[in-house]
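Suppose you are handed a protein chain with no further information: no name, no annotation, nothing but its sequence. What can you learn? This example shows the usual starting point.
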Amino acid sequence: MALNIVMFGPPGAGKGTQASRLATEWGIPQISTGDILRGAVQAGTELGQRAKAILDAGELVSDEIMVGIVRQRLAEDDAKDGFILDGFPRTVAQASALDTILQGRDSLVVVELSVPDEELVSRLSRRRMCSSCGAIVGGQPTAVASSRCAACGGELVQRSDDQENVVRERLSVYHERTAPLVDFYSGRVSFRSLDGSQTPELVESAVSEAVDSAVRTTG
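A reasonable first move is to predict its three-dimensional structure. Written in structure tokens, the prediction is:
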């Protein structure tokens, strides 16, 4: 049985971290929206060229283009035995399109990481990024111990989209556009909603248990 997973939640909920751990555990690719877009643009596909023109103009990529890019990515050989989608779908329209793409494939396991807004604001405002290698440091209550990256020695800086006013705007957009996915998926036996405000280790354990439970239910 192929393991097909969608993981969603607000900015800073830890989706990327948990998706990466699951991908390693199950031996399936972690597919993020950002990676999909960059890959399509770099490959120079027709959809990638359309996306590049929109991004260069500072506009949002439409559902139509995102769905087309995801459809192409999920048709690749490494995704045939399962995948973890991180950052897609972001809207109910995208979720509905994903159901159509996955017709004839194994059931979809959906994991939502839920974290209160104020915790997310606090978590993201503590986060730093290495200006050299791009590593993300911090986010948990313990302070960043150094202004330098432990991996490469680069300077740690705050990303512009991790500033409080920007974080609150990102959360507002999330609640408007993506939070309705809970209603879209909640009636399915393979849907699991988890408390993402715990430590990464506790969340990792909860995610593993939730996925195992959902697989047993759908299998």
